[in-house]
Amino acid sequence: MSAAPVEHFATDATAPSLLEEANTLVERLPGYRVEIIEGRLTVTPPADVAHSRALNRLIRPFIAVGLDDGGTEVHQAIGLWLPTGAEDFAIPDLSIVDADIDDHLIENNCYDPACFRLVLEVTSSNYRADLRTKVAAYADAKVPVYLIVDRRHQRLHVLTEPLASGYDNHEVYAPGQTVTLPDSIGAEVTLDVAEILKAGEPRRP
């Protein structure tokens, strides 16, 4: 995600539901990302180009090993319905999902978290949400692997073994290291941490 979010709350019984308000904001703010996590409606401005470069760098190894064919697919910015609230949903930057995901639509273009094998976030100004709030949300949804590209602190986080409010296993990697992701995502994928973090750095004139 990019930049600091703005939060909105429904204040009384006559106000629109959070989901209705979210859909109104999507129409009013093209290009912004709207999510509801733990009952909070969050609006995030469009990402910078370095964020996009990091995502593009990450997609390549997933495609190369065939994770966008057969039993799995690779997607950007698709909705994941969360169990943390009646209207909660998140939109990860990148997801690896089961190929039959179309059969598991729940509501509001969001899908059953059971279809998600991996979710990935590339941080920006709102890095705290990716490193804290979403850790609990994705763990509660039982997403097996949560990968965070922390551009602020120049680290790559791999979280596995989801529990009720967090992940039992949290590994942190620095430039100079490589990361082999769990084969539960559908194939063996090894990432070069320095290469990914460098792709996420803004290019200076």
TrEMBL record:
It comes from Streptomyces cavernicola. One of its GO terms (molecular function) is endonuclease activity. This is Uma2 family endonuclease. Transmembrane segments: none annotated. The keyword Transit peptide does not apply. Residues 28-193 form the Putative restriction endonuclease domain. InterPro entries: Nuclease_put_TT1808 (IPR012296), Restrct_endonuc-II-like (IPR011335), Uma2 (IPR008538). Keywords: Endonuclease, Hydrolase, Nuclease. The keyword Hydrolase applies. SUPFAM superfamilies: Restriction endonuclease-like. It comes from the Bacteria.
